From TrEMBL:
E.C. number: 2.1.1.77
Protein's recorded name: Protein-L-isoaspartate O-methyltransferase
Top-rank lineage group of the source organism: Bacteria
Xref: Pfam families: PCMT
Location in the cell: Cytoplasm
TM helices/strands, residue ranges: none
Keywords from the UniProt entry: Cytoplasm, Methyltransferase, S-adenosyl-L-methionine, Transferase
Organism: Streptomyces gamaensis
Family in the record: Belongs to the methyltransferase superfamily. L-isoaspartyl/D-aspartyl protein methyltransferase family.
Molecular function in Gene Ontology: methyltransferase activity
PANTHER family recorded: PROTEIN-L-ISOASPARTATE O-METHYLTRANSFERASE, PROTEIN-L-ISOASPARTATE(D-ASPARTATE) O-METHYLTRANSFERASE
Any one biological process term the GO annotation gives: methylation
Keyword Iron: no
Main location: cytoplasm
Length: 391
């Protein structure tokens, strides 16, 4: 670690402590000792170029104060693009879809605190990425207790080099994280820095009663972090966490994301007034999460019409849709196609959420049963929603 980086390491750890995302001395020491710049020698930032194209501009880290200050900001840094979608547009810029990143440090800190590790715990990390989070785990638990897998062999190779440079040597493997890491099982903790539509069976099989699983569950319209504890009957029970954040989806292929198949949208059938606006949906995370419970086979997308109006649109797997504009005279109206009750369910959910006191995400529990079925419930009154993975 260069001497130039030391003040930035200390400042980042202090910032995360002041924000309350770091609550323990052990994690404060880890963030103050693990050099992030070693794991992010280059990164991409999105910008609009002089031709009006949204591109990812590559940046390089150096020991210069300006570059170190950038790397040690509390921000996510994209570190890899999908080669199937990436197209170089000039010497340092590409279009494309991100496939790996160095996660927002405050989110990492919150998740690591939520993991509640103890000395001697064996941890499996799903999604090695740059290796930075694995290094933090090593700093807290020791190299021999940390196992990390990533579907991309190139990322594993780069992470191994980064970790060695920083002085850490956890057990790494190139593998589909949804299959876990049977060679290292059983684990006391599983932490995933990718999203999954449901908790994979392998994670249950490779842990033991009392173990904790922390992952981002993607439910269609929205998703969130759940912290689950495994019981004697292999039931994983817990709740959505106060720590909020979303991750890139887990992949089965090292290079590309699969192309989703969607049913064609139904023809427009009506327009009417509505009390629920695009602003309500965009700015209220717990409400979006609740909509995901209520409408499990529905996606949230943005729609641009021929007049240039951008709308928030809910798109059901049967082709039904409903959308409300972001701005303009029509913010209090909904257009819809297909099943008319799609937006009625949105309005009913909005009413229930407000009547219930606008509960935050940590007021919703999550259970994965031994047979793989999962449901959520409103902890104060017990109302339940059975989950169906988005498709």
């Amino acid at each position: 670690m260069t001497d130039a980086a030391r003040p930035y390491l200390a400042a980042l750890a202090a910032e995360l402590q002041r924000a309350g995302t770091i609550r323990s001395l052990q994690w404060a020491e880890a963030f103050a000792s693990v050099p992030r710049h070693v794991f992010v020698p280059e990164w991409y930032e999105q910008e609009t170029n002089d031709k009006g194209i949204a591109v990812w501009r590559r940046h390089h880290a150096t020991t210069a104060d300006e570059q170190l200050a950038h790397v040690y900001r509390d921000t996510t840094l994209v570190t890899a693009l999908d080669p199937a979608t990436a197209e170089q547009v000039d010497d340092t810029a590409w279009t494309g879809v991100p496939t790996s990143s160095s996660t927002l440090p405050s989110l990492m800190a919150g998740m690591l605190e939520e993991l509640t590790v103890e000395d001697g715990d064996r941890v499996l990390e799903i999604g090695t990425g740059t290796g930075y989070n694995a290094a933090l785990l090593c700093a807290r638990l020791g190299d021999h207790n940390v196992h990390s897998v990533d579907v991309d062999p190139a990322l594993i190779h780069a992470a191994q080099q980064n970790l060695a440079e920083a002085g850490y040597a956890p057990q790494l493997a190139a593998a589909d994280g949804q299959a876990g890491y049977p060679d290292g099982a059983p684990f006391d903790r599983v932490i995933a820095t990718c999203s999954v539509p449901a908790v994979p069976p392998a994670w249950i099989e490779q842990t033991k009663p009392g173990s904790v699983i922390l992952t981002d569950v993607a439910l269609g319209i929205e998703g969130g972090l759940v912290r689950l504890t495994l019981d004697e009957d292999t039931r994983a029970r817990g709740a959505f966490t106060r720590t909020t954040g979303r991750f890139m989806a887990a992949r089965n292929d090292a290079l590309v994301y699969p192309s989703p198949r969607h049913t064609a949208a139904a023809p427009e059938t009506g327009t009417r007034p509505t009390p629920v606006t695009a602003h309500d949906i965009r700015t209220t995370y717990p409400f979006r999460l609740l909509l995901a419970f209520q409408l499990p086979r529905t996606r949230l997308v943005y729609h641009l019409d021929d007049a240039g109006t951008t709308s928030v649109q809910l798109q059901s797997s049967d082709g039904s849709w409903a959308r409300v504009p972001l701005t303009g005279d029509g913010v209090g109206t909904v257009k819809y196609g297909g099943a008319e009750d799609l937006w009625h369910q949105v309005e009913d959910t909005w009413q229930w959420w407000n009547d219930a006191g606008r509960p935050a995400q940590d007021q919703f529990g999550y259970i994965r049963e031994p047979d793989g079925t999962a449901y959520v419930w409103h902890i104060p009154d017990g109302r339940q929603w059975r989950l169906t993975p988005p498709g």
